[in-house]
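I am writing to request your help with a piece of structural work I have in hand. A protein sequence and the structure tokens that stand for its backbone fold form the material at issue. Please examine both parts with care and let me know of anything in them that strikes you as inconsistent. The record follows directly beneath this note.
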Amino acid sequence: MPRDSAARAAYTRPFVIVGLIAASLFINYIDRGNLATGAKQISADLNLSATAYGTLLAAFYFSYTLLQVPMGMLADRWGAKQVLGLGALIWSLSTLLTGFATTYAELIALRFLLGLGECVAFTTASKLIAVNVPRDRVGLANGIISFGYMVGPAVGTLLGGVLMAHWGWRPVFVAFGLVSLLWLLPWSRVRLRPEPRAGEAGSTDAIVPFGQIVRQRALWGAALGHFAGNWNWYFVLGYLPMYLEKARGFDKVQMAEVASAAYLLNALAALFAGWAIGKLMALGHSTTLVCKVPLALAQVVGLVAMLGMPVLPITGCLACLFAYEVALGLSSPQYFMIPQLIAGPGAVARWVGVQNMMGNLPGIIGMFYAGVLIDASGGSYFTAFLVAGLINVLGLIGWTVILPRIEPIIWKPVRAVRRA
């Protein structure tokens, strides 16, 4: 076998890499969603108000959000594989240790640590896809990854809800943390193509200054759309289980069945969207329209669904929930496909760091103030749903008005950094 052919064969195949990334995000979303699944039990054990519970949710998003840009830079400097592996180790251990927490302060600290580990996921995933996946398969790759992180809440809520109903919340956190550590074994055996590294002679990153990235209109349009989409998504992830149990009278198993079914619809829609995007682009359809139309539709459906869920009878409430989850799934691959297509391998990790930082501010603001609004309303969820619904207007502006055509940016060349 020729030497170059042997070298190519030594690299792990692109969709094995994509599969492992999807598995890591599957685990990621199970681990971050365990708190919501056990919210009623945990709140009762530690005597937490809705505001205190919202603070627990916000503690995760505080570290998760504010470290997005530094972790994007770290992925460029050290390599995405190493940073993702370290993050997975941290978030798995924090999940495991949560099962032993006995005070509110310990839970706050462990949620902060969980955010520190999980904040690396999307910056590294985007870098790995941009480097290792052919451009014509990027849509499908993002669909598979979206399926991974969206089916995580479905499996985690159903399995966690059933297990917590029988064994309590502490053993479930310990078990899920131990299982999460197993992902590190196959990941350690992956061989990747060489990545562009910041500061290396001839690397793409060396000629794309961070200042050029943050001056792009497309970045801020995507960031605003991401902000609005995540406000709704995180509100549902964080409060739906407790809403179904406390406001709609579901028991733990009923809640787990309904919520997991909604999340599964979301994941299947995302997988279909990734496949459909690839097909439509292969047929010559506009990448801009293929990406923007589902994103705009998701914001419209989100507006209607959030306004309808707290006021309609239970059948209408669940119909709104399922419609929202399908629309969100159809738009999910585009969130990270857009920066991969626009920014390219040399800038995508830092681009996603900025976009994901802005997109995850709702985790801090929305999660905390939703709890405050619920307490201030005497346990009513209406105002929190109303705010979530109205935020969708910002998403429409971001995705359809501010975000320009989706096409690769021609970065202005500057002198590459010379190595001594």
About this structure: The two ends are 36 Å apart (CA to CA). The chain has one domain: 11-402. Confidence is low (pLDDT under 50) at residues 1-8, 198-206, 416-420. The CA atoms of residues 309 and 319 lie 8 Å apart.
